[in-house]
Amino acid sequence: MASAKVSPFTSTVVAAMRKLYPEKLADSSFDNTGLLLEAPYRPHLKNSVLLTVDLTKAVADEAIARKDSIIIAYHPIIFRPLKSITLANTQQNSLLHLAQEGISVYSPHTAVDAAPEGLNDWLADIISTAYPGTSNQVSIPSERSVITAVKDAPAGFEKAGYGRIVRFAQAEFLGNIVERISHVLQNDTDDKLSIAVPQSTPPEHKKSIPIKSIGICAGSGGSLLNGLDVDLLFTGELSHHEALAAIEQGKCVITTFHSNSERGFLRDRMAQQLQTAYAKENRTNDTKFEVDVSKADRDPFEIISSEYGW
């Protein structure tokens, strides 16, 4: 029996992703990155990529309806060893349907976090840029460093690492930093952020708290940011007790919901990075391809208010 063929387009997309975010940058102590589902070639599919943070059933259905060839899912849908693959499990159900349709799945996860110009650098760019996302943006004098460097990083990625620390040349007001984050992430958070400050701070002084250093980690940042000697922790989520410990130490905290610290990156940076990398990697005469961000992908939590109902 002849072996199944893989879509040349999908193979080129995977090669481009590995050039952008080498899998060696990922934290292999817990993460599961790479080509998680290699589906056989189906000629009815388009040369198109769908970017998502989470590969839910809604996203899988979206990709099938769009006839995409590959899904780039930031979070790995396969995270632990599988003993079986059944339709009863909702995630495995999605994978089986995607395989049936010929749609592959690739996950870069912490390789994106660690890569220069990757996710954590994008978050650092937001807080160190006045008027981000506009034509009037201005870089604020600051220094940037990684929290934990990647050991034995591949050539060209020597500056890769997990988390970032931004230190301003002059202190910035907390209120200004909040405005920058809200402006860029508003499509994902509906302009809502969670903020914690030391409890001794009078309400009228919260916006004017001086911030000279910020620890940054996309997603769940507690393990990386706890105990860091900075004025502000900026992450997707911290536990109740981690946040309490931070403000008791005189720090401030900004959280955006876990996946909302990641989702905007797909829209604002990864899509363009992948388009450029694919064009360089492409060895065929076919120049028509699409990279789009999922419309079905969203954080599982919503903020509701009794004022507006639900």
UniProtKB/TrEMBL annotation:
The lineage of its organism: Eukaryota, Fungi, Dikarya, Ascomycota, Pezizomycotina. SUPFAM superfamilies: NIF3 (NGG1p interacting factor 3)-like. Keywords: Metal-binding. GO terms for cellular component: mitochondrion. The keyword Metal-binding applies. Pfam families: DUF34_NIF3. InterPro entries: DUF34/NIF3 (IPR002678), DUF34/NIF3_sf (IPR036069). This is Related to Ngg1p-interacting factor 3. Belongs to the GTP cyclohydrolase I type 2/NIF3 family. Gene3D superfamilies: NIF3 (NGG1p interacting factor 3)-like. A divalent metal cation binds at residues 75, 113, 258, 262. The keyword Metal-binding applies. GO terms for molecular function: metal ion binding. PANTHER family: NGG1 INTERACTING FACTOR 3, NIF3-LIKE PROTEIN 1. NCBIfam families: YbgI_SA1388. It comes from the Eukaryota.
